[in-house]
Amino acid sequence: MTWLTARELAGLPGMPGSERRTRDKLAQLQVPMRSRAGRGGGQEYDCTALPAETRTALMIDKIAQAAPLVAAHAEATVPAQVAANLPAPITARRPPSQADKAVADARVMLINRLEELAGLQGTKKGAALLSLQLSSGQASAELQATARTANQRPRDASVSPRTLLRWLSTHRAEGWWGLLPAQADDTGAEVGNDVAAVLGRYLNKDARYRNLSAAAMEVNAELGNDPDAWRNLYARARRALPKVNRVDLIKARHSGAERAAKLPFKRRDTSVLKPLDVWLIDGHTFKAKVRHPDHGAPFAPEVTVVKDAATRLICGWSVALSENVIAVGDALRHAVGRCGSPAIVYSDNGAGETAKQMDCPVTGIIARLGADHRTGIAGHPQGHGLIERGWRTHMINCARQFGSYQGKDVDSNTLRKVSAELAKEQRALKRAESTGEVIQLSHKAPTWKQFIDAVQVAVDKYNNEHRHRSLPKNAQGKHMTPAEAWAAMLDTSLQHKLGELELRMLFMPAVLRTAKRGEVTFLNQTYFSNDLMAVDGEQVRVHYDIHDPNFVMVFSTDGEFVCEAKWNANRIDYFPKPVVQMAREKRVDAAVKRREGQIELAKRELQGTYGPANVFALPEPSAPVVVVPPLEVHVSSSPSLLLPEAQPVQTAAGRPFFDTQSQRYEWLMCNRTAWADADHAWVSDYVQGDDYDGLRDYFASRGIDWQATNQTTTRGTA
Predict the structure, then answer these.
(1) Do the domain assignments include residue 549?
(2) Do 464 and 589 belong to one domain?
(3) Is 617 part of any domain?
(4) Phi-psi region of 137 (alpha: psi -120 to 50; beta: other; left: phi over 0)
(5) Which residues are within 8 A (CB) of 31 and not within 5 positions of it... i.e. 6 or more apart?
(6) N or C of the chain: less Cβ packing under 10 Å?
(7) Are 689 and 594 in contact (CB under 8 A)?
(8) Are residues 625 and 551 in the same domain?
C-alpha cells in the first residue's frame, strides 16, 4: 500500500493544483489518512482510495522512474517522452458485456422475488426466507439457476440476506445500472519497483527487450534474486501490462510505417475534389520477371502510374528499367498529354519524384507546369493509400498472368522452381556463346513487348471496367468506373491540354547557367548562338534533350524563349587550311626521312664491314678513331670487271665505294687526309641537309660530329 501527502498529490490528474485544495478534496472523498512518520509530520493519504485517473497517473510515473533504479544503462529504461505522452484512461464506465447484462437481469429477478415476500413478512424477514430457500434447495430449479448467475458462482446458489438487502438498496438508488458487476480495479499505485522496471524496459524499441520474459530475466538478475524467481516477476509484469494504454504501448515499441499501420488513422475525403485538382504519382516494382529489352536476362522493371484523386482514373503511366526521374517525367508527360495540367501533384519522397529536374522551383518540370508539388511524410505510405491500394487491383493482377510472378502470396515451391529454370537458362546462354548451340528460352518470363502490352490492357481494364466502391453510383445504381466518373465530373472549361511541341519543350529537363559572350556550358560542352548576346551575363534556363546532345534550347528565367544554341557552333580553324596542309606535309616528309635514316642505320649494324674487298671497320663508340692506311687495289684486265670511269679513280686513291651519303661522310671524317677538293664542298652541303640532321646523334656518338670536329680543329690551329 502506498501513502502520499497532499503536496505530492497536488497537480496530478483528478487533483487540484494547490496543496490546500487537494487536502480539501481528499477530505471530501473521505480518503483514509494517517499521521506521517519521520521528520516534518503531517498527514498522508492511502493511494488505493484515489480516483482512477489519479491512480493511473501514479502508475505511469512509477513505471517511468523505477527502471533507472535497477538498470545501469540508460538506454534500457523507458523513454521519458513515452511516460509524458501517456494519457489518462477514460473514467466513464465501459459498455457492459452480455455476461454483465445477464448478471444484472438475474439480480433484478431476485429483487422482484424479495419484494413479493416483503409484502407479506417484511423486508428483512423476506430476505432471510429467500436466502434460506436458496441455500436449502427448497427454491425451484429456475430460481436457483438465477441465483447462481446473480451471485456469479456457477456451483453455489446460496445468497446471504445481507447481499439481497444490498442489491435491493442499490436498485432503488441507481436502478438496473447499479446492479452490474463492478469493473476490475485498474489501480497502478501498487506496482512494485521491479515490475515497473520490467515494464519500463518492455516499453522500448531496443531489440533486447522485444520479449517481456527477456526483460524480466535481466531485471531479476540485476536485483540479485534467485535465477528461478524471474517467472514470478514475469507473471506480475504480465498482469500489470494491460493497465498500459494500447496506443501508448504501440508508440513506445514501434516507429515509422509500422507504427502508423497499427494506430488509428484518418480517411481523406475526396468528395470535395474535382478532376485535375490533385494527381497522385507513384512507382511500383512489377511483381514478375520480364526479359530485359537489351540483353534478354529476366529482371523486375519499374511501373510508374499517375492517378487522379477525385475520379481514381489512371491518367498516365510509363515503364522503365528502374525508378528514376526519367520514368517519372515520362509518366507525367503521358498524363498531361492525355488529360491536361493538374493543380497539385502529390508524390512520395522517392529519388525520381524529388530530383532537381522535377522539383526545382525554377527549372523543374512541375514548376513549369504551374502545379504545386506536395510530398508525403517519409516512412508513412498510408498517406498514399489511394494509389498504394490500387496496385493490387491492376498491376499485381497483371503480373499474376505470367509464370514468373513473384508476389508475396506466390507458392514458395513454385517460385523456387521458376527461379531455378530461369537461372539454368542464363547459364546455358553463356555457354552457347562459345559452343554456338541454340537455346530454347523459357516461356515463363514475357518479352519486353508482351509486358508493355499487358500493362496497357490492365490500365484500360481498370479505367473502363473496374467499379470503384469509393465513387458515386450511376443511374443503374452501380458504382461508377473511373472513366465514367471522369466523364461525369470533368469541367472542360478548366482543362488545359498541351500540344506536341509544347509537351516536347516542357518536358525537356533544364538547368540554370550563365550566358557569357554568346556561349553556355553544359556537361563540359560548349553551345553557341549569336542571339545569346541579348542575355549576356544573365542567368538562363538551358533545356536539353537526353537523346540528342547537338543542341540546347535557351530560355530566360521568366520562361521567354531566347534561342537554340548549337554544339561548338563558334569553332573555326586556327590557320587557313592550305597553310596547315603544307605544314602538315612538311612535317610528314621530315618524319619519313628520319625513319628511313633509322632503318638504314639498323641495317648497317648487321654488317661487319663495308664490303668483302675492304678491311675498313667502324671503331667502337668508346675507342679512339683509327685511320686505316689505304690499300693498293689491283684492277683486273678482264673486261667483265671493268668499272665506270669514276670508280677506278676512287679506288686508285684508296677510297671505298659508298652506297649512301652517310657512308661517305663517315669515311671522310675518319680519313681527313684523304679528302679531295670536291669533298670540302660536298661535306658543307651534306651537314646542312635533313639526312645529317636525322643522324646527328649517331655521328656524335662516333666522335665525328661536324660541328664538334671543326671546333676541335680550330682550337688546335690556334
Answers:
(1) yes
(2) no
(3) yes
(4) left
(5) 45, 46, 49, 50
(6) C
(7) no
(8) no
Q: Can you read off the three cell numbers belonging to residue 16?
A: 487540484
Angle at 333 between CA 329 and CA 337, to 5 degrees: 175
Task: Answer for the pair 163, 179: CB distance below 8 angstroms, yes or no.
Answer: no
Contacts 24+ apart (CB under 8 A), 223-230: 223/70, 223/194
Cβ count within 10 A of residue 329: 24
The one-letter code for the residue type at 211 is N
How big is the CA angle at 99 (ends 96 and 100), to the nearest 5 degrees?
40
Segment 288-347, tens digit of pLDDT:
999 988 788 899 998 989 999 999 999 988 887 776 666 777 788 888 888 888 888 888
> What sign has the CA pseudo-torsion 286, 292, 296, 297?
negative
Q: What residue type is assigned to position 467 of the chain?
A: R
Residues 6+ positions from 309 with CB-CB distance below 8 Å? 270, 273, 277, 278, 279, 280, 346, 386
The CATH code of the domain that includes 558 is 2.30.30.130
Task: Convert the pLDDT of each residue in 469-508 to its tens digit.
Answer: 889 999 899 999 999 999 999 888 888 877 766 666 666 6
Taken in order 51, 52, 57, 63, is the CA torsion positive or negative? positive
Q: Are residues 541 and 615 in the same domain?
A: no
Within 10 angstroms of residue 508's Cβ, the number of other Cβ atoms is 19
Asked if 360 and 406 sit in the same domain, the reply is yes
- Residue 700 belongs to a domain: yes
Answer yes or no: is 422 within a domain. Answer: no
What is the residue range of 292's domain?
278-412+441-489
- 683 in the same domain as 623: yes
Please choose, from the candidates 174, 116, 181, the residue with its C-alpha nearest in 3D space to the C-alpha of residue 143: 116
The backbone torsions φ and ψ at residue 497, rounded to the nearest 5 degrees and listed phi first, read -95, 150
Radius of gyration (Cα) for the chain, nearest Å? 51
Cβ-contact 460, 453 below 8 angstroms: no
Nearest partner of 488 among 472, 466, 464, judged by Cα: 472
Q: What is the pTM of this model?
A: 0.51
Residue at which a domain ends, from 179, 196, 219: 179
Output helix, strand, coil percentages for the chain, rounded to the nearest 5. Answer: 50, 10, 40
Quick check: 507 and 329 in contact, CB under 8 A?
Answer: yes
> 193-202 vs 212-222: helix axis angle to the nearest 10?
140
Q: Is the pLDDT of residue 640 over 60?
A: no
| Amino acid, res. 114 | L
CB 468 within 8 Å of CB 461? no
| CA–CA distance, 236 with 195 (Å, rounded to integer) | 7
- Claim to verify: residue 484 and residue 386 sit in the same structural domain: yes
DSSP, collapsed to helix, strand or coil, labels residue 28 as helix
Written as nine digits, the cell of 491 is 469541367
What CATH number has the domain bearing residue 338? 3.30.420.10
Whether residues 463 and 517 fall in one domain? no
φ, ψ of residue 260 to 5 degrees: the values are -65, -30
pLDDT tens by residue, 600-619:
888 877 765 444 444 444 45
698 burial type by CB count under 10 A (0-12 exposed, 13-18 middle, 19+ buried)? middle
Do 475 and 387 fall into the same domain? yes
Domain count, the chain: 5
Of 53, 122, 48, whose CA–CA distance to 91 is shortest? 53
